[in-house]
TrEMBL record:
The keyword Glycosyltransferase does not apply. Residues 485-510 are annotated as: Disordered. This is methylmalonate-semialdehyde dehydrogenase (CoA acylating). One of its GO terms (molecular function) is methylmalonate-semialdehyde dehydrogenase (acylating, NAD) activity. Keywords: NAD, Oxidoreductase. It is an enzyme of class 1 (oxidoreductase). NCBIfam families: MMSDH.
Length: 510
């Protein structure tokens, strides 16, 4: 039985009206399990109208009351962690344990957003001039939109919605059409937590829905995460239409492995960071850069041994290290890149193509693939594969390793493995990448710092979560006030005792 999914608008499930649907697959079986409606422009406009009407009601909640709704939401999600993780895994294909991590990392940003009463405090300068005080306040933008990728269907919507809601905005989420069920359930839980209807909406769709959001003047800000070409398109279109935009794109994250590193530890970490979630993470390590031939040979031996032991299986099998890719197009893309790597002259150490999984013979599985002697001119080095493929690029020294990371067009995450503090410190200072791990392979910053890549991994100037997110979702108003004296003496209201400013000269605070 194929389920028919809905939109979530004004606190209710609403059936799709466009007549267009996308297929949601069970990646373990390679079968369609649901149909998702793809909204028309008119449907998106109706969602925005609904959100616009709801937003002032929500903005009138004081910050502490808004925070309490988010606190209640935290409890509701935690209470149903198991079923949400199973739902997430069934559409995405990541393991249940990893699906719980996806939800948990999203909740951590909700926990951060609960600090809204503190984080929304403005600035105040008493007596900036004679009898003049100046203060600034942060106000919501109005209706804002989030357009999110398939690979973190809980985490990334919550990274956007948490700060947007805490600051008093209404939110329209356009989740990935590949795994929309968790976002729909989160919408129900927001309502149950006390969010007024219409403040958090889910509109399912494809480019038609996205374009409708990008061109509607009532949408004041767009937060996007996905592939780089779409990130750039959304950034350019949103900003050309006068909106704020923060758009995060693809990645090719390097791990520089110094000769003094503990190579057993490094190999363990790289296996998880390279192949976890079938490599479908923007912070996955896809390039290992051992420094020196001896380090490379030793590391390769340890990686090879571990890759052979990996357990690729159904996402609902607790013994699985990683499950299927999200779709058949992903399998074709990865297989194609493996062939390109062979044709380009890279050394294929382990070929993951053609793996079969018992109970998932038609599922979207790809075995772990390991390439050695990959060079910077190769497409498998330059382009994001987004699958379980780890490429080893041998560097002769530290400077060459650093240069590789710096010259790559992507700059999302990077790691260095070393026991030497001086090398690590130099690396952190000079590397041209937004998020750096020192003996940490996936340096996703915790919720109260910000997340964002550099170069073609990020477009816009304010990052996700952390203090930047409160700036992104609010506009600053600065008030300069002057109260004429007189009332407190109970005398007649008169002019200020001080000299009257010359109205024809720009005011200065002498
Ligand atoms: P995607 O770019 O295909 O889709 C992302 C969103 O954009 C989806 O909601 C989709 O419906 C929409 N979209 C797709 N094509 C569009 C078009 N032509 N016009 C308008 N909207 C369109 O990305 P994906 O495959 O869902 O996710 C994987 C990508 O996301 C990878 O490149 C990965 O690196 C990246 N990613 C980046 C980060 C980060 O923080 N930098 C985090 C997670 C994922």
């Amino acid at each position: 039985m194929v389920r028919e999914l809905t939109h979530f608008i004004g606190g209710q499930h609403v059936a799709g009206a466009s007549g267009n649907f996308g297929d949601v697959f069970d990646p373990n079986l390679g079968q369609v399990q649901a149909r998702v409606p793809l909204a028309s422009k008119a449907e998106v406009e109706a969602v925005i109208a609904n959100a616009e009407a709801a937003q002032p009601v929500w903005a009138a909640f004081n910050p502490q009351k808004r925070a309490r709704v988010l606190m209640k939401f935290l409890t509701l999600v935690q209470d149903e962690m198991d079923s949400l993780a199973a739902l997430l895994s069934s559409e995405h294909g990541k393991t249940i344990a990893d699906a719980k991590g996806d939800i948990q990392r999203g909740l951590e940003v909700i926990e951060f957003a609960v600090g809204a009463p503190h984080l929304l405090k403005g600035e105040y300068t008493e007596s900036a001039g004679t009898g003049i005080d100046v203060y600034s306040i942060r106000q919501p933008l109005g209706v804002v939109a989030g357009i999110t990728p398939f690979n973190f269907p809980a985490m990334i919507p919550l990274w956007k919605a948490g700060p947007a809601l805490a600051t008093g905005n209404a939110f329209v989420l356009k989740p990935s059409e590949r795994d929309p069920s968790v976002p729909l359930r989160l919408a129900e839980l927001f309502l149950e937590a006390g969010l007024p209807p219409g403040v958090f909406n889910v509109v399912n769709g494809d480019k038609v829905a996205v374009d409708a959001l990008l061109h509607d003047p009532r949408i004041k800000a767009v937060g996007f995460v996905g592939s780089t070409p779409i990130a750039q398109y959304i950034y350019e279109t949103a900003t050309a239409n006068g909106k704020r935009a923060q758009c995060f794109g693809g990645a090719k994250n390097h791990a520089i492995v110094m000769p003094d590193a503990d190579l057993d530890d490094v190999a363990d970490q790289l296996i998880g960071a390279g192949y976890g979630s079938a490599g479908e993470r923007c912070m996955a390590i896809s390039v290992a850069v051992p420094v020196g031939e001896e380090t490379a040979d030793r590391l390769l031996a340890k990686l090879t041994e571990r890759v052979h032991k990996l357990n690729i299986g159904r996402s609902d099998d607790p013994g699985t290290d990683y499950g299927p890719l999200v779709g058949k197009d992903g399998v074709d893309r990865v297989n194609n890149y493996v062939q390109i790597g062979i044709d380009e002259g890279a050394e294929l150490v382990i070929d993951g193509r053609g793996v079969t999984v018992p109970g998932g013979e038609d599922g979207y599985f790809v075995g772990a693939t390991l390439f050695d002697k990959v060079t910077p001119e190769m497409r498998i080095y330059k382009e994001e594969i987004f699958g379980p493929v780890l490429s080893v690029v041998r560097a002769k020294d530290y400077e060459e390793g650093l240069r590789l990371a710096n010259e790559h067009e992507y700059g999302n995450g990077v790691a260095i493995f070393t026991r030497d503090g001086d090398t690590a410190r130099d690396f952190a200072a000079r590397v041209q990448v937004g998020m750096v791990g020192i003996n940490v392979p996936i340096p996703v910053p915790i919720a109260y710092y910000t997340f964002g890549g550099w170069k073609r991994s990020g477009f816009g100037d304010l990052n996700q979560h952390g203090p930047d997110s409160f700036r992104f979702y609010t506009k600053t108003k600065t008030v300069t006030q002057r109260w004429p004296s007189g009332m407190k003496e109970l005398g007649p209201v008169g002019r200020s005792a001080g000299s009257t400013p010359n109205a024809f000269v720009i005011p200065t605070m002498d």
